[in-house]
Amino acid sequence: xxxxxxxTGIQSQIAKGWKPNxxxxxxxxxxxxxxxxxxxxxxxxxxxxxxxxxxxxxFSKADLARDNVQRKPAFGKVQPxxxxxxxxxxxxxxxxxxxxxxxxxxLDYTRSLAPxxxxxxxxxxxxxxxxxLLHQDVLFANSFFKSGVWENxxxxxxxxxxxxxxxxxxxxxFDPVAFFDERKREIKLAGRRTPNKxxxxxxxxxxxxxxxxxxxxxxxxxxxxxxxxxxxxVLAELFGIDxxxxxxxxxxAAGIGQEEMDFICDPAGALLCYTTSxxxxxxxxxxxxxxxxxxxxGQHIAxxxxxxxxxxxxxxxxxxxxxxxxxxxxxxxxxxxNCV
Length: 340
Prior knowledge:
By secondary structure, the protein is an alpha/beta fold. It has helices at about 5-15, 40-45, 60-65, 105-110, 120-145, 175-190, 200-210, 210-220, 230-240, and strands at about 45-50, 55-60, 85-90, 95-100, 155, 165, 195-200, 245, 250, 260-265, 270-275, 285-290, 300-305, 315-325, 335.
């Protein structure tokens, strides 16, 4: 059909027996995720670094919180106060994805002037981009959002909670406001900051949203035109927290040729923490995402396009990133597992 795209040419081809069978170019079943689903960089601040691994200072909380002021003796002086410091390390690792393009196969799309998603290059650039975002959330889940990461961890049980246990969010006797008030008090006392973010797995969020105690608190706030709803903002106001985030990015947990769709972050988990909005030298944060610009271009996620070997008629799209998702302060977080 190349060269026969005029009305006369098409009619001539149809008369000779050709039947139109081009793919539709105004739609496709492309299961790209909603970009807003990816949450890794919305929780802990990104800290760009100039070296792949190095040190950062940690000041002694005990010394900073102690009352070191003493009564001055007559004709004398007090002993200098101790302000101790240590250091810790980070190490950014490089991760990469490569996807190929068959240049010969791509000619059909180029010559037919097929727009949008039918363009193999455009589709695979988006594929590589989403792979980077998906991988970031997988790293986040493994580094921050699972049992065994944080020292302060509570486990949901069906009855008779004790110690580091609580009634599951789905239990009618669970008191969500009192529970999170207690966790906020613990973090404030241990880390000297009131937690400002609550991260909820999908099932944990749905359980809180539909809990009778919370519904009772909001049921008189609506009207016929604007019915009362429980969303992230409402939960944040009820719990006295700056922001509630629902972790709902998804992925295929199975290998090539198989499908096992799941949420990247534990849907029954929850993380309450204090984080800074950006790197700070005068306040702590429960975690940081250290990022290294491995190509020297100022970007910790970078993309490139390059030709394959001669005679292969291929080209490749590369995505590359370097980061270290590091827990930096146990005292500023509490993880809850088996919430539902």
